[in-house]
Every structure is written in C-alpha cells, then in structure tokens.
C-alpha cells in the first residue's frame, strides 16, 4: 500500500492489531489488509524471583500493555499523520502455561506464576499418572494441583484460572475465553470436540472431591474457542485501559487469545499437517503438526494444538544457544585483547561459517551446553562441558561444528521419539531465531540433525505479535468456511520468499556419529553435575 492507502485504511479501521507478552518484551504490531506491518511498539521487561516464584508484577503487566500500545499509536501518528481511534480486530497472546487465579471479585489471589517455575514436580507426576497423558511442570493444571497439594489458603476462593493472555482478554472484554492453542497448555484438549478432555476433567474433579471446594474444574476454566471465532468485543472500560488517552473506541472485535507457541506457528505458516517449525534461542523447541495423536505417553513430548485445533507434538529442550553465546563472548574478548574490535554480526558470521569447513562429525569433539537441567536427557541440573580425547581433531572448525551440533542434541533425541517410535512423517520444517541470521550455517546443521529440509522465510523475524495480528485478520477477513491453513498459505504467504536447505548426506552421517558420542557421554555430564558445585 502507498502512504495514502495506508492512511485511509487506518482511518477506516481496515487494520488488525496483535499484542504479545513475551518473556523479555511486550510487542504491539499493527498490520494492513495486505498483512504488512505498518506500525509497532514495544516495552522491555524481565521476570523476577519473589517469595520463591518467578513472576511479573500485575501493575507492570498493565503498564507494559499500555506502554507498548502507546508507542505503536505514536508510530502511527508520526508515520501517517493519523490519530488511531479504531482497528478492524484485536488479538492478545502471551507466554503459555503458568498460573493466574482470581476470586469472585476479580482479584488476583497470588502473584502470577510463570512457566519458568519448576515448583510443580509432584503435581505434574501425579496428574501424568492419573491421566496417562504427559502433564509438564509448566502447565497451568500442574500449578493449580500443586497449590492444592500444598494446602495453599487461596485455593477455596478460586473463581477463575487462566493464562496471561486469557487474563488480558478478560480485562478488555469481560469474557472468560481462550484460544484452543493456549488452552492446550492449560489442560489437555480432546481433538474431536475441541474442548477440555471431558474424561480427564471428571478424573480431576473426582481426585479433589474430598477437599470440599465450592468449585469444579469446568467452573473455573475459560471457555475454549478456535481460530476464526469472535471471542468478544472491546468494552468501554477495556478501551480506556488499553488507551488511557481515550482515543480508542469500544466495540472492536477480539479474536481468541493465544499462546506464543500458536502465534509462532501462524507467523511461520506451520499449521498444516506434516509440517512444523523449530524456534532456536536460549531454549529450542520444535512444533510438529501431527496427522494423528501419539500411540502412548512420552514424558519428552508435550501434546498441544494449533490455533485451529490440530494436534501438535512439541519437543522442548531447555538449553540451546546460551553456551555458544558464551564462547562467542570469549572470542570477542580475545579479539579485543589483540587490538581488534569485532561487531557481533561479523564475529558470528566468521566463526559460524568455520563449521562448514569441519570434519562431518566435528572431529571427535564433544560438548554439552547445559546451563540448566534437561528433562529430555534426565539431567536435573546442568554444567556446560567441553570434552576431547587425545585422538580428537582439535581445530577451530571442528570446535564450532561441535557447539552447533550440541545445540540441537537434546532436541534430536526428542524428535527421534516422533520419527522413529511413532513414525511421524515430516515434509518440511521452518526455522526461526537469531541463529539463522547468519545465512546457511544454522539451517545446514539443523537439517543434518533432523534429516529434514529446513526453510527460513523472510517473514520469520516478524514474531509472535505479527502472528497474533494475522489471527485477528483471519477472524475479520476470512471467507465463509475458509480454513486457517488456506488463509495463511494462499493469502498471507503465497508470495513470501523462503530459502530451503535439504540435508547433505555427509552432514547427516556426521551428525549420526556425533549423536552416538553425545548419548554415550551423558554419564560425563552427570558426573560433572554430581561433583562440580
């Protein structure tokens, strides 16, 4: 769109707004009818440890929301000379899981407990056994049941339990509703009904029946909706909360609030069965859209859904790029000591590309970038570790390839469960995250690890807030009975360019040798945990 067309679209409300609460940033993105970002705003924040729980203050949740919206609104004014008073649709997303519990008066009973809290092990284990369905520690139902097991005094007063995205949506619409993708990290979803699994809901209510609480699970959970449905409208109070200046008008349609995993799938066009995406950062996770549910429970695999309800196998590894970044910091120090100032882009570009010159298996080197524990490999704690034998080929190229390979080591073990044990077919994966800013290298190493073509799209850096804006656009602009897969594939991403790299046979064989060494060396990592305090 040209400047005049964008101005007219803004004034006429032919736009969509997505706001996502990430772990370090709240971001607001406004898109036009061609799905291009026309304005954005953000607010930086950090969780903090308070009374034994990782949390964000309720005041900062609201203040950060207003700050991100205000900056986006100012961006609109500065770019187009138009005061933002309405949009076509709005959607909110946030970090999945966690625990927000409210009483009948709408008061938060305990500070927001984020996904990062590893305080629910007992509850997660008991519920996994009861349901015969993997309940990770970060899931909302695990937090709720742990509060019950701990006899926390707030539990009898609970009237509503939701996620961070569900909370924001409730504040602005008065509706206790949630998108199915976000709901799937709150409580297990039944694929056929697109609702909380009724048998498991009954099991949970029976489990706590003796407690005498004045509520049942169905009473306190938000209603589940799928992508494309309208989940309410912006109330006058909600409009004033979002835009304290009073310019934003009420009555705007809101789509179901979603989790960051769902918006990541949308932003990478990864909602079609036999496809998926891999997010690479401090942690690494793969989301694979399944043709069927898994045959049995696997503690290493989370079962969630796409925003339109298809089953998704999620493999989440706690450790990925942190140790690699630490080594990069060491090389930067060395360069500075030698009198050279290397910017991050050049440093990463030069060193990562050395991995392409390496022996296929990394020359017999081994490392574990475990800054924290790793559930997939059974490590409760982590110790970053680099190991070699006298026969290893200790070169810079092999060193770099080894650290790239190990970044995907735990992910590979989890993915093997899907591809080998469950025979899950994957046609292609889309990678996104900072590692892929350096062309080719990250893609090639990930393709070798998973033996699947890896694509990186030009839009992959747009992020979850953009994906949430797309879901808002899907609600308002889709044709009757148009699927989310068709909307994304034929409208949003039809002309989007991407670079695909297929697995190289030599790299695949090299990674196979490396992962055998990785498995065998886990005892070394455990010994480091046991003996290095």
Automatic annotation (TrEMBL):
GO molecular function: kinase activity
CDD domains: ASKHA_NBD_FGGY_BaXK-like
UniProt keyword terms in alphabetical order: Kinase, Transferase
Record domain Carbohydrate kinase FGGY N-terminal: where: 17-129
Keyword check for Ion transport: no
Record keyword Kinase present: yes
Domain Carbohydrate kinase FGGY C-terminal, residue spans: 277-475
InterPro entries xref list: ATPase_NBD, FGGY_C, FGGY_Carb_Kinase, FGGY_N
GO BP, one annotated term: carbohydrate metabolic process
Family: Belongs to the FGGY kinase family.
Protein name according to UniProt: FGGY-family carbohydrate kinase
Organism: Saccharibacillus brassicae
Origin organism lineage: Bacteria, Bacillati, Bacillota, Bacilli, Bacillales
């Amino acid at each position: 769109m040209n400047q005049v067309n964008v101005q007219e679209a803004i004034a006429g409300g032919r736009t969509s707004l997505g706001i996502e609460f990430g772990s370090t940033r709240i971001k607001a993105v406004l898109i036009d009818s061609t799905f291009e970002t026309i304005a954005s705003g953000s607010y930086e924040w950090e969780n903090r440890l308070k009374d034994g729980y990782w949390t964000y203050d309720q005041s900062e949740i609201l203040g950060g929301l207003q700050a991100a919206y205000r900056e986006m609104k100012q961006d609109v004014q500065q770019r187009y000379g138009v005061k933002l008073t309405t949009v076509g649709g709005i959607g909110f997303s946030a970090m999945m899981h966690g625990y927000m519990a409210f009483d009948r008066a709408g008061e938060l009973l305990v500070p927001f407990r984020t996904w990062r809290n590893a305080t629910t092990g007992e509850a997660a284990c008991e519920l996994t056994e009861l349901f015969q369905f993997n309940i990770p520690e970060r899931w909302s139902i695990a937090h709720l049941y742990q509060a019950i097991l701990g006899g926390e005094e707030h539990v009898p007063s609970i009237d509503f339990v939701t996620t961070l995205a569900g909370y924001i949506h409730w504040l602005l619409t008065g509706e206790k509703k949630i998108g199915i993708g976000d709901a799937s990290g709150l409580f297990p979803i039944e694929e056929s009904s697109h609702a909380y699994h009724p048998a498991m809901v009954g099991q949970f209510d029976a489990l706590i029946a003796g407690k005498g609480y004045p509520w049942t699970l169905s009473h306190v959970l938000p209603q589940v909706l799928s992508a494309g449905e309208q989940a309410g409208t912006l109330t006058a109070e909600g409009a004033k909360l979002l835009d304290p200046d009073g310019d934003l008008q009420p009555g705007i349609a809101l789509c179901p609030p979603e989790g960051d995993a769902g918006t990541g799938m949308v932003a990478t066009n990864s909602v079609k069965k036999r496809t998926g995406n891999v997010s690479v950062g401090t942690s690494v996770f793969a989301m694979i859209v399944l043709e069927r549910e898994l045959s049995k429970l696997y503690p290493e695999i989370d079962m969630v859904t796409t925003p339109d309800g298809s089953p998704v196998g999620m493999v989440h590894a706690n450790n990925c790029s942190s140790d690699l970044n630490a080594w990069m910091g060491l090389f930067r120090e060395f360069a500075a000591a030698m009198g050279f100032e290397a910017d991050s882009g050049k440093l990463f570009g030069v060193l990562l590309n050395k991995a392409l010159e390496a022996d296929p298996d990394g020359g017999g080197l081994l490392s574990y970038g475990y800054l924290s524990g790793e559930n997939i490999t059974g490590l409760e704690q982590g110790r970053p570790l680099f190991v070699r034998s006298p026969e290893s080929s200790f070169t810079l190229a092999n060193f770099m390839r080894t650290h790239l390979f190990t970044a995907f080591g735990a992910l590979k073990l989890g993915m093997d469960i899907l591809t080998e044990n469950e025979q899950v077919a994957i046609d292609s994966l889309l990678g996104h995250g900072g590692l892929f800013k350096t062309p080719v290298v990250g893609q090639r190493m990930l393709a070798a690890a998973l033996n699947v073509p890896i694509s990186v799209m030009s839009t992959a850096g747009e992020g979850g807030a953009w994906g949430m804006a797309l879901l808002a656009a899907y609600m308002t602009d889709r044709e009757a009975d148009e699927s989310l897969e068709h909307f994304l594939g034929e409208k949003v991403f039809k002309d989007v360019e991407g670079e695909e790299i297929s697995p190289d046979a030599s790299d695949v064989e090299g990674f196979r040798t490396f992962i055998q060494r990785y498995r065998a060396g886990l005892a070394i990592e455990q010994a480091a945990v046991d003996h290095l305090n």
